[in-house]
């Protein structure tokens, strides 16, 4: 989890002139969604003991962490040359994290004995 947060921080620290390709075809939104999907997966792994006892609570915690980190990343990016703060990036972050969490919850529901 900390490693994914560090990777996202490093990517957010790159000046905009090094990333001109991200402006095409909403590639930056796809990258945001994928990065936060990976962050959500690593959070679910880190909180595995909690998710076994309280899966809904763990899911809310993971979504909250990803959303909070997404807001923090966007605020930090406003300090980097040629990078802008974009609320749609936070929405892409949230979408990526939510897809992973919902997918995990659905897989748990399928595995429960009847």
Please give a handful of descriptors for the protein shown:
0% strand; 5 helices; 114 residues; mainly alpha
Can you tell me the number of structural domains?
1
Assembly classification? single chain
Task: State the separation between the terminal residues, measured CA to CA.
Answer: 33 Å
Helix content: over 70%
Low-confidence stretches: none
Give the tally of β-strands.
0
Strand content: under 5%
Q: H/E series, N to C?
A: HHHHH
Our Rg estimate from Cα atoms comes to: 15 Å
Structure classification: mainly alpha
Biggest sheet features: none
Mean pLDDT: 88
Overall geometric form: elongated
The number of helices is 5
Fold blueprint:
Layout: H1 2-13, H2 27-46, H3 48-53, H4 55-77, H5 87-111
Helix pairs in contact: 1-4, 2-4, 2-5, 4-5
Question: In a nutshell, what does this entry contain?
Answer:
With 114 residues, the protein is mostly helical. It has one domain.
Structural description of this entry:
With 114 residues, the protein is mainly α. The chain has one domain (2-11, 35-111). Helix content is 75%, strand content 0%. The protein contains five helices and no strands. The chain is elongated and about 55 Å long.
């Amino acid at each position: 989890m900390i490693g994914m947060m560090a990777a996202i921080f490093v990517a957010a620290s790159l000046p905009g002139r090094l990333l001109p390709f991200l402006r095409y075809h909403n590639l930056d939104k796809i990258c945001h969604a994928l990065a936060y999907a990976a962050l959500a997966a690593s959070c679910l792994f880190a909180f595995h003991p909690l998710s076994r006892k309280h899966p809904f609570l763990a899911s809310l915690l993971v979504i909250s962490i990803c959303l909070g980190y997404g807001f923090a990343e966007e605020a930090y990016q406003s300090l980097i040359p040629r990078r802008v703060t974009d609320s749609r990036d936070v929405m892409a972050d949230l979408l990526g994290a939510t897809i992973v969490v919902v997918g995990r919850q659905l897989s748990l529901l399928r595995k429960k004995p009847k």
